[in-house]
Design a protein that fits this description.
single chain; globular; 10 helices; 253 residues; 63% helix; two-stranded antiparallel sheet; 2 strands
């Protein structure tokens, strides 16, 4: 994501990234529109509330986080980009807590992405020393092992390896790390762990493609609509829900 990942426009654009970003953004907008229909209008949509809806949601967040990690190395002004995305996440939190506390967003995906971007700045010089294939493998293993950390376990989805001590799940600090307390509530929750490991997996995929000189595979002919989405992804993300809400209000009236 250009705005969300810090991709530098002055560098060569890899149009395939814009294509993936655009498809994922459109999928996200449709998913959130369905969420509004189900949880705000109160309509029952069985397939959306089943495993199908969950897999749809996961496909979106996995794609965004992997793509952001991949694009991190392409960008300049990394501090500025990381801070900007983090502030956008903080803005969403403030607005939702004040305007719609029943659907508040605390530690949402923008907060995660901004944090990951900033953390990678001091880590980059160390991670560059790791072979990308090994780095990707370790990141994938760590993501798999910590995927269920929010629910109190190590493991992945239905595979529970070990129950974690309940005392770790205390407050907002532990919730930020991945261990929410009983009173923590958020409708869009992406803690640092396990998702940082998915971000670094994307980072190492970029390193592998750079090492193998495969990046030219991403230099497709520019698709104007998707290129525009790629350049304005953060703005689209911030505006899509207010527009959807406005549409719902008009429909409800």
């Amino acid at each position: 994501m250009n705005s969300m990942s810090g991709e530098k426009v002055s560098k060569k654009r890899y149009s395939m990234l814009d294509y993936i970003r655009g498809i994922t953004l459109l999928s996200m907008i449709l998913y959130h529109a369905m969420w509004d229909v189900v949880y705000i209008l109160g309509k029952r949509v069985a397939w959306y509330q089943s495993d199908i809806g969950y897999l749809w949601q996961q496909s979106i967040c996995w794609a965004f986080i992997l793509l952001s990690g991949f694009c991190w190395s392409l960008g300049g002004q990394k501090w500025k980009r990381g801070i900007m995305v983090s502030m956008a996440g903080a803005l969403i939190t403030c607005v939702t807590v004040i305007v719609m506390p029943e659907n508040q967003v605390v530690f949402g995906v923008l907060t995660l992405l901004g944090t990951c971007m900033l953390l990678l700045i001091p880590l980059d010089k160390h991670l560059r020393r790791i072979d990308p294939k090994l780095g990707f493998l370790v990141s994938a293993i760590l993501f798999t092992l910590t995927r269920n950390i929010n629910m109190g376990y190590l493991g992945f989805e239905g595979w529970k390896v070990m129950k974690l001590p309940a005392g770790l799940y205390r407050n907002l600090v532990t919730a930020f790390l991945g261990m929410p307390g009983d009173t923590f509530v958020s409708t869009d929750y992406f803690s640092l762990f396990p998702w940082f490991f998915l971000f670094t997996a994307g980072y190492f995929i970029y390193g592998l493609m750079e090492q193998k000189d495969w990046l030219q595979w991403l230099a497709w002919k520019e698709i104007p609509g998707f290129a525009w989405i790629g350049k304005h992804s953060l703005e689209i993300y911030l505006l899509h829900q207010p527009i959807l809400y406005a549409g719902l209000m008009v429909y409800a009236c």
